[in-house]
Write a sequence for this structure.
């Protein structure tokens, strides 16, 4: 009986193996004509301004790549155009068919069928080998081998962790499973074999949308980018508002904790020596939803909230408030130029928050070229306590200003003073 | 024959030479009636010839000829008195001997209004007060630790040295301007200015929190550097150094200007006036232990309603 069971088990194990586990050599051979170098070229000089990778999808005339690879087209569509170059030297011009700015995807189209489309598949199990193809550093087509680290929920499910090495120029290239099916699109790297892939399901959605609602040739691309990002950010804020927020205690305040899986919190308290006459505790929470906007603006979609508590038994109230005031300042970290954003407009209010008075400031600044998009900074500092201080800082970038107000309201209503 | 006198401008107090004979010669040579030790003056530079009812002024210098009322003197002139002369570097005025003189200025410390400046006890008291303010400043900013040695070092570095530097610089300047040392009066004045500055800053900080706006600090800064500081220096120069009003004002602006300019350029609000763009969110971060403010405290809901009306940021040109 036992030999039969073992034989049946062996047979099952053999048949359960993927029928076509190809390996990197075979995947490279099968796809080398489907993966291109994508170039953004200057019409005046004829030279490439930026490069990336792309691959054939859909009906064979469509090419997928990253939004950030062709971002210059959005900025200056009259000056730049997109072309592809295949490994056998073939090349041609591509037009923009669709964008998913939030997921950093772009769908391009050739005037005719240029090859056989790659097949797409869902993500293999964690730890399974995956293969990223692209044109690193303009050195020619290559394949990087690594493993699937799974979907990163701290990036709003829009990134797969790839334990392989992506290099500049590979952005927009396909990532294959062992069967040679596309499971994602190369997008970014944090170096040291930590790279990120966009899951193929977002590409499938983009292709479907592009077929259903193709971009008008005379569309204002910046307005489209702005519309997509604002919709994405509003959806993100709605998710935050709908969620039940866990609490975190910081001395006498109970506060919103990790309000979303996209958020990570860290203790940022100062390591103080024995001679210090005060104590300070700080919690800093931030999301990882860094959405590429353009070369000048780089990334938006940031959500940062910071809690800062300070107290003393040894300093007198005047000393303490001198110190407290010095800590009560923050600013949005991105130093964007006047061509990109407006000045901040700030206003001050005194608010009652859970029986305590807080001096609050709300600031906003607008993006010059992306209508309706703002950076928002909110601060609120505890007043009326001689030897205790506390403040909240909340920063959001690339959002619709009014959509942030319910979030600020929920933050304040969640805060609870525990005497 | 009209009695005349030549007022020769020098640093500090002027020199006076009576014009007594019929002919008076002026120059660098030792055989002149009036000798000017100015290397730009000719050996025999000018001759003044007096008649019963006339006056002739004759230029003798080929190099740097005499100027009268800022014009080269060719031959002779009698344009009434006083007559402003320029001989080389030296300025002189030909005056009638019976010209009126200005009212006598009381010595510092003699009149009721300026007794403070002539009294050593007052000066010592003011210096002590400034040192106490310096120590207090250190104490109120000693957040991490406090020890007496650090306090002494701070007061020495921030208060004593800066007081000393101002005292030396301004004393030397005063010596050059009026050829006198008035160290005690100067020290008193510097201490008063210091104390006024401390008090204004305290008041300004309180106002900033009271009105929840930064304009009080900007107004104070402008008032200080464009009004109070040059005004205090002007008053000192008029009443202590006994300079003329216009001269005092000009000198005050020259002294206060180099101090004011960097301080004004560093101010965020004024920077914003000069440059219409800033990457910094200039919000009201002041906090006060007294917690006196004019704004009422509102509910979260009211705040959100008001916040919705916050205007967009202004776009720079």
């Amino acid at each position: 009986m036992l030999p039969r069971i073992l034989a049946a088990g062996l047979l099952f194990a053999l048949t359960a193996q993927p029928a076509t586990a190809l390996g990197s050599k075979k995947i490279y051979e099968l796809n080398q004509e489907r993966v291109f170098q994508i170039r953004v070229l200057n019409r005046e000089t004829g030279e490439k301004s930026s490069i990336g990778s792309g691959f054939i999808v859909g009906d064979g005339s469509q090419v997928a790549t990253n939004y950030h690879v062709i971002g210059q087209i959005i900025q200056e569509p009259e000056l730049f155009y997109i072309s592809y170059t295949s490994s056998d030297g073939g090349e041609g011009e591509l037009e923009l068919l669709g964008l998913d700015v939030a997921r950093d995807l772009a769908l391009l189209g050739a005037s005719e069928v240029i090859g056989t489309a790659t097949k797409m598949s869902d993500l293999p199990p964690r730890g399974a080998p995956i293969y990223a193809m692209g044109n690193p550093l303009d050195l020619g087509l290559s394949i990087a081998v690594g493993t699937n680290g799974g979907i990163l929920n701290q990036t709003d499910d829009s990134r797969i962790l790839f334990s392989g090495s992506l290099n500049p120029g590979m952005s927009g290239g396909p990532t294959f499973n062992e069967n040679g099916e596309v499971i994602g699109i190369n997008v970014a790297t944090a170096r040291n074999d930590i790279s990120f892939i966009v899951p193929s399901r977002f590409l499938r959605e983009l292709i479907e949308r592009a077929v259903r609602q193709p971009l008008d040739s005379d569309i204002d691309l910046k307005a489209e980018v702005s519309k997509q990002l604002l919709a994405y950010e509003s959806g993100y804020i709605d998710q935050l508002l709908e969620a039940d927020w866990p609490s975190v205690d910081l001395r006498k305040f109970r506060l919103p904790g990790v309000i979303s899986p996209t958020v990570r919190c860290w203790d940022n308290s100062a390591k103080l020596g024995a001679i210090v006459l005060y104590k300070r505790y700080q919690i800093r929470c931030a999301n990882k939803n860094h959405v590429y906007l353009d070369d000048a603006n780089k990334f938006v979609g940031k959500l940062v909230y910071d809690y800062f508590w300070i107290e003393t038994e040894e300093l007198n109230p005047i000393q303490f408030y001198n110190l407290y005031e010095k800590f009560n300042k923050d600013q949005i970290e991105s130093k964007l130029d006047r061509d990109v954003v407006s000045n901040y407009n700030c206003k001050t209010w005194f608010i009652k928050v859970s029986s305590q008075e807080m001096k609050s400031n709300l600031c906003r600044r607008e993006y010059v070229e992306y209508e309706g998009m703002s950076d928002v900074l909110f601060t609120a500092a505890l007043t009326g306590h001689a030897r205790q201080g506390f403040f909240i800082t909340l920063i959001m970038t690339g959002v619709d200003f009014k959509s942030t107000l319910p979030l600020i309201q929920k933050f304040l209503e969640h805060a609870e003073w525990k005497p | 024959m009209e009695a005349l006198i030549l007022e020769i401008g020098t640093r500090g107090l002027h020199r006076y030479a009576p014009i007594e004979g019929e002919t008076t010669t002026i120059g660098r040579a030792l055989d002149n009636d009036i000798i000017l030790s100015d290397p730009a003056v000719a050996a025999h530079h000018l001759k003044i010839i007096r008649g019963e009812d006339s006056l002739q002024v004759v230029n003798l210098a080929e190099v740097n000829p005499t100027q009268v009322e800022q014009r080269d003197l060719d031959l002779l002139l009698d344009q009434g008195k006083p007559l402003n002369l320029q001989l080389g570097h030296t300025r002189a005025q030909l005056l009638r001997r019976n010209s009126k003189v200005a009212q006598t200025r009381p010595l510092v410390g003699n009149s009721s209004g300026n007794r403070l400046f002539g009294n050593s006890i007052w000066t010592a008291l003011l210096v002590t007060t400034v040192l106490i303010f310096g120590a207090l400043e250190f104490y109120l900013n000693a957040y991490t630790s406090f020890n007496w040695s650090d306090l002494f070092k701070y007061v020495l570095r921030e208060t004593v040295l800066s007081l000393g530097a101002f005292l030396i610089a301004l004393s030397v300047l005063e010596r050059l301007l009026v050829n006198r040392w008035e160290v005690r009066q100067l020290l008193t004045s510097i201490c008063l200015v210091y104390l006024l500055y401390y008090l204004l800053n305290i008041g300004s900080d309180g106002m900033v929190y009271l009105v929840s706006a930064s304009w009080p600090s900007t107004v104070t800064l402008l008032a200080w550097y464009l009004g109070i500081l040059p005004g205090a220096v002007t008053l000192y120069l008029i009443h202590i150094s006994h300079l003329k009003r216009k001269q005092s004002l000009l000198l005050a602006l020259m002294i206060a200007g180099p101090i004011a300019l960097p301080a004004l350029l560093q101010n965020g609000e004024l920077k914003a006036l000069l440059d219409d763009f800033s990457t910094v969110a200039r919000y009201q971060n002041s906090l006060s232990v007294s917690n006196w403010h004019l704004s009422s405290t509102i509910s979260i809901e009211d705040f959100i309603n008001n916040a919705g009306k916050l205007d967009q940021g202004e776009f720079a040109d």
Chain B touches chain A through 46 residues (CB under 8 Å). Residues 206 and 288 of chain B are 7 Å apart (CA to CA). The mean pLDDT of chain B is 87.
